[in-house]
């Protein structure tokens, strides 16, 4: 499969996802809400809550004290309400209404000093986990110049709808679901394809 500027075969992807699951149990439980994808969108999908901010800390958002009151006071209820909690990036072609709604919500959390793309993506993915990819420094390496904003969302959308990738991600999910009950990787069979993509993108960037 092709992810950003990198390639990985399904067998290697499975091995990498197993390792991720084994070493990130707290992230899968408290951030991703596994098993069961509990609290999709948070306890209040159209509001930013202290619970949301605590969950992002588990995945390393490194929020500062000054970030917290600002985030709680951002008036983004209208933009959040405009996007269903199960809206998918696969359905958000550039120029579509869903894509524009996604960028409008992204813009609401732009411009606060010290609150960059990585922190923002971890919060937005939590609120709309099928639509916003997580990004970090390693994912930015994988996606090169298209690592932020509309260009990044477009690049990830294109990877998700690439027919060869669609086939390989389906195979990945089948194999993850078939993992032994004692395997932590089995939990990843529940997550959105988008989440598998950003985990692999981060691991590929880290391996450079």
How is this structure best summarized?
The chain has 208 residues and is an all-alpha fold.
Notes on the structure:
This protein has 208 residues and is an all-alpha fold. It has one domain. The protein contains 11 helices and 2 strands; from the N terminus they run ββααααααααααα. Strands 1-2 form a two-stranded antiparallel sheet. The longest helix has 15 residues, at 163-177. It is globular and about 45 Å long. The mean pLDDT is 95.
Summarize the helix and strand pattern as letters: EEHHHHHHHHHHH
Poorly predicted segments: none
What is the chains' assembly state? Answer: single chain
Query: What sort of overall outline do the alpha carbons produce when their principal axes are compared?
Result: globular
Q: Going across the major beta sheet, what is the strand order?
A: 1-2
| Structural class determined from secondary elements | mainly alpha
Mean pLDDT: 95
Topology:
Blueprint: E1 2-3, E2 6-7, H1 10-23, H2 25-31, H3 50-58, H4 67-73, H5 77-81, H6 97-108, H7 117-127, H8 137-143, H9 149-161, H10 163-177, H11 193-206
Antiparallel strand pairs: 1-2
């Amino acid at each position: 499969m092709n992810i950003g500027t990198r390639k990985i075969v399904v067998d290697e992807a499975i091995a990498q996802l197993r390792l991720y699951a084994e070493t990130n149990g707290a992230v899968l439980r408290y951030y991703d809400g596994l098993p069961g994808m509990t609290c999709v969108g948070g306890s209040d999908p159209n509001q930013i809550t202290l619970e949301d901010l605590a969950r992002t800390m588990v995945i390393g958002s490194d929020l500062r004290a000054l970030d917290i009151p600002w985030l709680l006071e951002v008036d983004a209820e209208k933009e959040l309400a405009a996007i269903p909690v199960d809206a998918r990036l696969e359905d958000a072609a550039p120029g579509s209404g869903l894509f524009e709604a996604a960028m409008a919500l992204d813009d609401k959390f732009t411009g606060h000093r010290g609150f960059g793309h990585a922190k923002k993506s971890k919060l937005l993915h939590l609120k709309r986990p099928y639509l916003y990819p997580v990004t970090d420094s390693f994912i930015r390496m994988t996606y090169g110049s298209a690592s932020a904003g509309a260009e990044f969302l477009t690049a990830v959308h294109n990877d998700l709808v690439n027919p060869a990738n669609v086939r390989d991600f389906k195979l990945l999910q089948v194999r993850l679901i078939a993992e032994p009950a004692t395997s932590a990787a089995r939990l990843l069979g529940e997550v959105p394809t988008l989440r598998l993509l950003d985990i692999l993108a981060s691991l590929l960037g880290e391996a450079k």
